[in-house]
Write a structure and sequence with these properties.
By secondary structure, the chain is α+β, with helices and mostly antiparallel strands. The chain has a single domain (11-189), classed as Peptide deformylase (Peptide Deformylase, Alpha-Beta Complex), CATH 3.90.45. It has helices at residues 26-39, 136-149, 160-169, 171-189; strands at 44-46, 56-62, 77-92, 95-100, 108-114, 117-123, 129-135. 35% of the residues are buried.
């Protein structure tokens, strides 16, 4: 099942998600989240982005850089991550890089600061404890998705003046997304 992705302006994106305690449906949820993410041509998706206040996200490493072609992204997957209740236990270094978000389609910033390396403790789809050490691009993806679980959007990581410039540059698009988010919420409430 492909879920509608919640857009900027939807309150669920601003709430701290609840910890996963019952893992019975997580495997199925993860598969639906992956299908939704592939359809949107993304690299990660957090449960709040489909309207669920749960501390779970999915992410993938692609074998090749996904192009704008119609080739199914699933064919390019090298590794799938299903992450529940993540906690960053170690951060190292800092680097700026480009980020966008499926909840803010078409908006990007090239200067989002993130830790270069990190260690994350989490539970897999069956509730087993795991630890990962990540660096570079996947470290960025994990930090971005963990932020979603805490109600934080990528542009909020920008330093003050850069954040203000991002908001000003994208004011009209952000207002449009908020309007669309309100319309979708009304539709989902029916």
């Amino acid at each position: 099942m492909i879920h509608p992705i919640r857009l900027y302006g939807d309150p669920v994106l601003r709430r701290k998600a609840r910890p996963v305690q019952d893992f019975a449906g997580i495997k199925r949820l993860a598969e639906e989240m992956l299908e939704t993410m592939f359809e949107a041509r993304g690299v990660g998706l957090a449960a709040p982005q489909i309207g669920l206040s749960q501390r779970v996200f999915v992410a993938v490493e692609y074998a090749d850089e996904p192009e704008e072609e119609e080739r199914p992204l699933r064919d390019l997957v090298r590794r799938v991550y299903v992450v529940a209740n993540p906690v960053i236990t170690h951060r190292e270094g800092q680097v700026e890089g480009i980020e966008g978000c499926l909840s803010l389609p078409g908006l990007y910033s090239e200067e989002v600061p993130r830790a270069e390396r990190l260690r994350v403790a989490f539970q897999d789809e069956e509730g087993r404890p795991r630890t990962l050490e990540l660096e570079g691009y996947m470290a960025r993806v994990f930090q971005h998705e963990i932020d979603h679980l805490d109600g934080i959007l990528f542009f909020e990581r920008l330093p003050g003046p850069k954040r203000e410039a991002f908001l000003e540059e994208n004011r009209k698009e952000l207002a449009r997304l908020q309007k669309e988010a309100r319309a979708r919420l009304k539709e989902l409430a029916r």
